[in-house]
Design goal:
One of its GO terms (cellular component) is cytosol. Keywords: Hydrolase, Magnesium, Metal-binding, NAD. The protein has helices at residues 68-79, 123-129, 165-171, 180-186, 192-213, 290-302, 356-365, 368-383, 414-423, and strands at residues 9-13, 32-34, 41-45, 90-97, 100-107, 114-118, 121-122, 142-148, 153-159, 176-177, 224-227, 232-235, 243-244, 249-258, 263-268, 280-283, 306-317, 327-336, 350-355. It is an alpha+beta fold. Among the domains are: 68-213, Nucleoside Triphosphate Pyrophosphohydrolase (Alpha-Beta Complex); 249-383 and 402-424, Nucleoside Triphosphate Pyrophosphohydrolase (Alpha-Beta Complex). The two termini are 26 Å apart.
Length: 440
């Protein structure tokens, strides 16, 4: 986005996701509006990226045909070609390969750009693809993702990493396997459909990766088997039978604020895109509260002592390491009691105090829409069989074409919302010690 007419981006979030069809682009009810008093662009997000999953908003009762147990029974019957079992439910399958969901693209109407979609496959077509495979399709291979009874559909994920031959089959249909992180950047955050599909992809990746790393019982070492349509696992050892549930790894992420000097503490790591600064973050340790984790991590990484800690919002984060696929980012504002920085170089490359004006400029200069279009174009090229190499950092520059001195993560990350909320003084939590974001 050029900074000539619409300068900084700041985001107003609402707590509920629309219940209409998540796969219909015309169902988006997000709005874009510009303010005449402040040169900003306000994009109404109904939830953080990866939250607001439209096929997981409600859990059907066990007797409901759309529930996990009932749907699995119907799925197994169809896989066995049981003619005595009829079902009017549509089964949609989303294949994954090494953590990457199947995706495709389509041109935007009245626009030269493209947008991505998940590569859902009807169960009948999916069975046909496996006709010559040595892998026997059973219900245990599928993971229940959710349902939409108004669409009469149940959605499943499956890992097909061992089936190399499927790649060429999908390529002939302009389908390809794409990293969830790439889809995240490529998503139009003002499009309810895109954000809904991203949430589904994130949920599916987290579950499938968890299945991959939980093949054995941590109690006796026995092999685990999926139960309840993949929603949990159980030890197959008859003397053990321990239940294993998907693990959630909570992470605190905090914007540390110096009230007196009107500045915020930002850090960067060596793995970051060049010139990108973000909030401090760290895993919660056993036996400590969220607030204690905020204070400990801030002290360990920067030597800054924190006093008051105020909750902002939380975000599922399924794009971390494959051995920790179920991270939950819990966001806070933290108010500094000391101000001399002592960076732990084992954790961070650098940490500095930044003025409100500097951070506002970082939001202004970062062309998030350009990065989104670049990533969307990359998905299109991948599905066409052309892999394009491009540095994401080249998308963040000023109007003259010069590199921006710094920028912060895009609107798909909770760090962006913590930072932009502080820059624009949004929320009572910044002024009265209470947060208005708890219902985001």
């Amino acid at each position: 986005m050029k900074s000539t007419s619409l300068s900084p981006l700041h985001f107003n979030s609402h707590k509920s996701f629309p219940s209409d069809n998540p796969f219909n682009p015309s169902s988006s009810s997000s709005s874009i509006s510009s303010s005449t008093s402040i040169p900003t662009m306000s994009i109404n997000l109904r939830s953080h990226a990866f939250a607001g999953n439209p096929i997981k908003l409600k859990t059907p009762k066990p007797e409901n045909p759309f529930s996990a147990s009932s749907a699995l029974e119907s799925l197994n019957s169809q896989l066995l070609n049981n003619t005595h079992f009829s079902s009017s439910i549509n089964f949609k399958v989303l294949p994954f390969k090494k953590g990457r969901p199947l995706a495709t693209f389509s041109a935007r109407p009245n626009d030269s750009s493209s947008t991505w979609h998940l590569g859902w496959i009807d169960l009948t077509d999916f069975k046909a693809l496996f006709a010559n495979s040595t892998l026997e399709l059973t219900g245990d291979l599928f993971v229940y993702l959710g349902s939409l009874d108004e669409e009469n559909s149940v959605y499943w994920g499956i890992d097909v990493s061992s089936e190399e031959g499927l790649v060429s089959e999908f390529a002939s249909k302009l389908l390809c396997f794409v990293e969830v992180r790439t889809l995240m950047v490529a998503s139009d955050w003002a499009d309810a459909r895109a954000m809904g599909e991203l949430a589904i992809a994130g949920h599916a990746r987290a579950l499938l990766e968890w299945h991959h790393v939980s093949k054995f019982c941590g109690h006796c070492g026995g092999k685990t088997v999926p139960v309840e349509a993949g929603k949990r696992k159980q030890c197959s050892n008859p003397l053990c039978k321990k239940k294993v549930y998907p693990r959630v790894d909570p992470v605190v992420i905090m914007l540390v604020i110096d009230r007196e000097n009107d500045r915020a503490l930002l850090s960067k790591q060596s793995r970051f895109v060049p010139r990108m600064w973000s909030c401090l973050a760290g895993f919660i340790e056993p036996g400590e509260s969220l607030e204690e984790a905020v204070k400990r991590e801030t002290w360990e990484e920067t030597g800054i002592e924190v006093g008051e800690v105020v909750y902002h919002s939380s975000q599922p984060w399924p794009v971390g390491p494959s051995n920790m696929p179920c991270q939950l980012m819990v966001g806070f504002f933290a108010y500094a009691k000391s101000f001399d920085i002592n960076v732990d170089k084992g954790e961070l490359e650098d940490a500095q105090w930044h003025s409100r004006e500097d951070v506002r400029n970082a939001l202004t200069f970062a062309e998030y829409e350009k990065a989104q279009r670049t990533a969307a174009a990359k998905v299109e090229q991948m599905c066409k069989g052309v892999e394009r190499q491009q540095s994401l950092s080249s998308d963040f520059n000023v109007e003259s074409g010069e590199l921006a001195p710094m920028f912060v993560p895009g609107p798909f990350a909770i760090a962006h919302h913590l930072i932009s909320s502080w820059v624009y003084n949004e929320g009572s939590g910044l002024n009265k010690g209470r947060s208005s974001f708890s219902n985001l």
